[in-house]
Amino acid sequence: MVLEVFLVARKVLIIDDEDDIREVAALSLESVAGWEVVTANSGSQGLARAAEHQPDAILLDVMMPGMDGPTTFRELRKNPATSKIPVLLLTAKVQSSDQRRFADLGVEAVLFKPFDPMTLSTQIASVLGWS
Amino acid sequence: MNLVPHSRREPAANPASGQEAGGDSTGLAEALNRMWERFLPEIRERAALLEAAANAQAIGRFSAEMRQQANAAAHKLAGTLGTFNLAHGTELAREFESLTAPANPASIDSKLAVRLRSLSAEIHTIIESRS
After folding, report:
1. Residues belonging to chain B with any Cβ–Cβ distance to chain A shorter than 8 Å
2. DSSP bridge pairs for A38
3. Nearest to B15 by CA among A92, A17, A65, A32
4. Number of neighbours of residue A19 by Cβ within 10 angstroms
5. By the CB < 8 Å criterion, does A71 face chain B?
6. Tens of pLDDT, residue by residue, chain A (131 residues)
7. Beta strands of A16-123 (E only): which ranges?
8. ipTM over cut 0.95
């Protein structure tokens, strides 16, 4: 039952340098699904928060200054403490060449900006089999 | 890997309450409106960058640096506007991003300035109409 998806406490880490996107996503997951949300505004901060908080999933922006999403993903996979955490890329890039590049990384899924705040948690739950 | 495109035509359900999303959407919509107001100065700054770039293109002063800044601003607007239910704004910002991509041959087209000006004006109108 879909209801069960949101009865289980989940913790999601959102890594995005854009304040507005990060905060809307956090609001969405907290208010619609009731999940606990941890945020980071950079790849390096995300690595630290992932290891510290051990989230059930990570929502990772692709284009960030400094350490971008793909680099952050590879670093997450290198660390035994974070290597098993499912990662979903979040991107505004819609070209098929970009999508193929992301697919080759080995992430669980690619979600696209703009997202619908009402259904973001449902998308994540569906992809990760939390239903 | 799953690619999960966002579609606003999907029914928005709120499994947490077991009701249609509309039953709980008012609170989220109000929270999003407050966020929109908070991030509006930043969103306007991005739109102003597009306008400045379009004007610079029109007088032959569209530097590589300005192109990069405008392209990045358009990319961010593409991700942000639709999240605040301004889907057409996202479409226009994506076109602006595409036209200002470094490798885009359209960058030497004399009609580019006209289109960039039109796009930036439309985006401005869309932003202000929500404000």
Report:
1. 1-6, 8, 10, 12-16, 18, 21, 24-25, 27-28, 31-32, 35, 39, 42-43, 75-76, 78-84, 87, 90, 94
2. A13
3. A32
4. 14
5. no
6. 445 556 678 999 999 999 999 999 999 999 999 999 999 999 999 999 999 999 999 999 999 999 999 999 999 999 999 999 999 999 987 777 777 888 789 999 999 999 999 999 999 999 999 96
7. 36-40, 57-61, 87-91, 109-112
8. no
